[in-house]
Amino acid sequence: MNSASPAQMLSPARSIAATHSPATRPTTAHPSYMRLSQVDADHRLNRRNGEEDSGWCSPEEDGVSTGYESVGSVGIRDLRMVDRYCLLETEDGSRLVEPATSRDHAEIHQLLLAVFQGPSRREFGSQNEHPLYEPSDRLVIRERGRLVAHIHPQYRRIVFADQSLMVGNLDALCTLPEYRGRGYAHQLMLGAEEQLQAAGAAMAMVCTDQPAFFREMGYAPCGRHCFSSASPRDILAQLELVRPKYRRWEQPPPSLNIRLWRQTELGSLMRIYNDNTAEGFGATQRDEDHWRWLINRQAFDQIYVAIDGPDRLDLEHRNSPIVGYAVVRRGQIVELMTSPLHDQSAAQLVRRVCADAIERDQLRVTAHAPPGHPIHQLIEDAGGRHFAAETVGSRTWMAKVFDPLEFLRRQRHNVAARVKATKRNLPIEFGMLLDGQPLTVSVTRRTVKVSSGGNLSDRLELDSPTLTQMLLGHASPSELSDRGQLAYVTDETLEIAEAVFPKLPFWQPVFDTIRGS
Length: 517
Prior knowledge:
By secondary structure, the chain is an alpha+beta fold. The chain has three domains: 16-218, Aminopeptidase (3-Layer(aba) Sandwich); 225-389, Gcn5-related N-acetyltransferase (GNAT) (Aminopeptidase); 403-500, 2-Layer Sandwich (Nonspecific Lipid-transfer Protein, Chain A), CATH 3.30.1050. The chain has 16 helices and 24 strands. It has helices at 31-34, 38-49, 105-116, 121-127, 184-198, 211-216, 232-242, 266-277, 288-297, 345-359, 374-381, 404-410, 412-421, 464-471, 477-482, 491-500, and strands at residues 56-57, 76-82, 85-90, 95-99, 139-143, 146-160, 163-175, 203-208, 220-221, 225-230, 257-260, 281-284, 302-307, 322-329, 332-338, 365-368, 385-389, 391-392, 395-401, 428-434, 437-443, 448-452, 459-462, 487-488. The strands form three sheets. Strands 1, 2, 3, 4, 5, 6, 7, 8, 9, 12, 18 and 19 form a twelve-stranded mixed sheet that branches. A hairpin with a 2-residue loop joins β18 (391-392) and β19 (395-401). α7 packs antiparallel against α10. The longest helix has 15 residues, at 184-198.
């Protein structure tokens, strides 16, 4: 772990706007933007953000990105907003980063095949069929007419407590080998972040095997790979051990009917998924369009459903007998969800998956589930292994909150409830030295106020990536202090920080991120 002091930690990359004079900052008054039709601008605004521009509203196998490059010497003359996207220009006036068009799809696919040896034509096509996708989401760099670098920010909404956040998953950041070392990856990242912020995204996320590059861009490890793995025979044996025993005169409850899912039962999957993720941290918000996209991309082998009662078809899904489902791919349970009142359906779904795995001569069954899910304990008791780590197979989940202080303000109700649960009297106040800037944070019963300056004799000292980890609940302040990422003056300040920034079960379903065939 990094033991450097907060002052020695890498500072986040500066916003592009901060590196330009007011005359060259992005502005909707620029003539290039004004040429857009108001209809098209409104369409994009509504598609990205719904009713609220800020991106907030109330109520793996294959991964992302390589392309580690040092920052090159290409000079940025101007940053322009065209159709709400960033166009970086070199000093000779040629555009460096530009949005792709549908005509670029074939060339982009060839670039990805050259760098990643994938995705398949079918998977690439399914990416372009996502409900929120537009060709101009992708940013590219051309040199002498040849497409040489690419990044794809993918727009999603995730659940965070009682709120909905717009986020951007950065995918397929790459540069042709012969064009590396010119800073193209760095410029694509800057353009993608400006594009995401213009669309109202609260943060960007990436799963990468090049964490050093993203750390320089202000990203911090957030989220863990969480799964458990064991022999299917051992899991079946453990399920028999924990099966409830009944006396001869006792009537056991009827077994659930486990069978393959039918296309007409999509509403039942939606209901169960929403029941399990309504107030979680990190799960993708899936509407019907997103669900149909997941099904049509066919990044799974089977979907099993557990049925309570007779196997009948209920097209309205209000009284559907389906009480659980398991999405399976190559011996891996990539998603396991059950109705809150039918937890026992998980065991029967796992029993069916293990039985089928034995028939297919699969040596291990792996289950992906949120931290604390009973399936992890079951597999550990069966002699298997549980993995909950930032990095697995060189892949690390990283995140960057674009405006950490605004993120904190938006969580004001949750923060106040956490502090109140610790029996502390409100309001409370503590200081922060964030990236060298003195701040005062005040938590009241209704809001969180952040103001500049204040008494810094009793404060936390940290940088923006560390604050991102605290906001997303990836690590507690005491853990970050042990790693040397956070400094504090008194124990009382640390106790207050523990109440304001507790560790949270931030988790993203694997089903949304695995690749199709």
